[in-house]
Each structure stands twice: as C-alpha cells, then as structure tokens.
Amino acid sequence: MLVDAHTHVFCWGENPADGYLSERTRKSWLTYLLMKLIGIAREPGETLSDKTRSRLLRQVHESRLDRCIVLAQDAVYREDGSRDDAATHFYVSNDYVLDLARRSDRILAGCSINPWRSDALAELERCRAAGSRLVKIHTAIQGVDPSLARFDPFYALARDLGVVLMFHTGYEHSCTVRSQQFTDPTRLARPLDHGGTVIAAHCGTCAWFDPENYYPRFIRIMQQHDNLYGDTAIMANLLRWSSLRRLSGEPADLRGRIVHGSDYPFPPARLPYLNRIGLFPPERRNPLDLDLRIKESFNFGPGYGDQVLRLMGLV
Ligand SMILES: [Zn+2]
C-alpha cells in the first residue's frame, strides 16, 4: 500500500459552512500563484470550490497512491472557547472531508480540531465515530501552543480513542499566523508524554530565509520519544530543497519513523532533483505521483509508504 498522509483541499467560500478562505488569503500573491500553477481555471466545475474538489478526486484516482489523507482545517478560537471567524483565514470543515471520504474509497478523512474550542472533546469523539483516525492541529495558523497543560484532557482522549495527532511544525508561510514559536517541535513533549501517536508535520523544517531552523529540535525530540513520527510534506519544495537529503542521512531508527506526505495541492519542485528523477519523469503530469517519485529516490525506512495505516489502527 502507498499512502499520502498529508494532503489539503480548500474551499473558496461559496458555502462558508463547508469552508472558506478569508479575503486577505484570497487576494494574497501566493494564493494567486498557486491557482495559476495548478491550472484550476481549466478544471470542470461550476465554482472554484467544485473545481478544486474535482481536481483532487481526479488526481487521487489517477495516481499510484492507494490512499490519501485529506486534511480539514479548523478555525481560530479565543481562549474562552468561542470561535473567532474574523481571525480565521483558512477554514475547511470536518464534515467536508468526511464527505470526501464517503465519495472515494481512496480518501481518508483527517479531521482538524482546535483544542481551544469549548466542544473540542465532543468533536474529537464525533470525528472518530465518523471514521477519522487522524486529527490535525495547525499550531501556527490556529494559534495553538501544544505545550499547554489545559490541553491534557484532549491529548488523553486522543490516545484512548487511538486517534493520531498531527501537529504542524516549522515556520508557516502560506497563511496568516498567530505565532511561529508554537511550531517548535520540542513543544510536542506534552502530547507525547500522554503516550498516543504524534506526527510532526514537515519534520520541523523551515525555509532558508527564516530566522530560526527547528529541524535540529525535531531530531532531538525524535531521539527522546518513540511515539513521535515525522512527515515529509512540502519538503520537495524549493524553499526546503536540501531537507530531504539531510533527513535521509539520519540514523536508521529515526528514518524508520518518517511517513510520506506531499502537502498537495502545493506542487513539488523538479529542479533540485533532476539527477534523481531525470528531465521529463513520466510522473510529472500528476503532482501526487511526482512528489512520491522524488521522495522514493531517498532512503527512508521500509514503512515510509504505508506505516501511517498501522499508526491509525487500519491494518
Ligand atoms: Zn500542509
């Protein structure tokens, strides 16, 4: 089995209950560039959200992948547990990805729950009952410091339900953030101490121009906790062009806890990997396949392509 543990869908906002991008995000140069790069205008569908969903379903079904985890993106919440729509720039509802998983047997729903929300525990139980075995927390965008003691009941429930917690680690560049410091991988010690499975998305990597690099801290905390894993999402991007080589040079026990993730629809770069994949790799027509091809050319452990299914209790 081949699994992509980290893909995204987004909604433009025609039906805000499904999901939306804020006006600021819609007008950002990065959103504009991404929409051009992926050729969304040519995709069939009435609305931009329809086109985005249809492109995802088509490319998942055309790819070599057996399963894709499509992630929701919860809103920003205030410290009193209430939702802050004005501060939310990227939102995808859990029902939207749960519905995608019902439409396609190749899609697994990765729900997203901001642990600040007053109904976080109930939502975790609801998502698990609806079939989601992995929940994403976006530390930077959702304003979540994973090291806070007040999230202990949430971490304990995730462990008891067998739900994998995926945290964003490393500086975030695609959307407005609350704090980059929350993406420090060593802050994951708190959820890890509860004993459940945790995935540090992006392995703490930052771009070459960021003021800090959290990768060394990712390595340190990987050495301290056997229940910590890392995913390779966005690591075939130009801004992190040397990160895959570095990660694949780590000791075998650490490499063995790396799982495949693309960060689709962000496309991989080909330029830094020409000597590995050639000038015109056949996979270039499908960004999911191209990303997988690039990462398969590095030496990660034997579980790279499918161990996330075991972590989720699906095999
Ligand atoms: Zn991502």
What's the structural blueprint in terms of helices and strands?
Layout: E1 3-8, E2 19-21, H1 23-26, H2 29-37, H3 48-62, E3 67-71, E4 90-92, H4 94-103, E5 107-112, H5 120-129, E6 134-137, H6 139-142, H7 152-161, E7 164-168, H8 189-193, E8 198-201, H9 215-224, E9 228-231, H10 243-247, H11 252-255, E10 258-259, H12 274-277, H13 287-296, H14 307-311
Parallel strand pairs: 1-3, 3-5, 5-6, 6-7, 7-8, 8-9, 9-10
Antiparallel strand pairs: 2-4
Helix pairs in contact: 5-7
Residues 6, 8, 233, 263 line the site of zinc ion (ZN).
Question: How do you describe this structure in short?
Answer:
By secondary structure, the chain is α/β, with parallel strands linked by helices. It has helices at residues 23-26, 29-37, 48-62, 94-103, 120-129, 139-142, 152-161, 189-193, 215-224, 243-247, 252-255, 274-277, 287-296, 307-311; strands spanning 3-8, 19-21, 67-71, 90-92, 107-112, 134-137, 164-168, 198-201, 228-231, 258-259. The protein contains 14 helices and 10 strands.
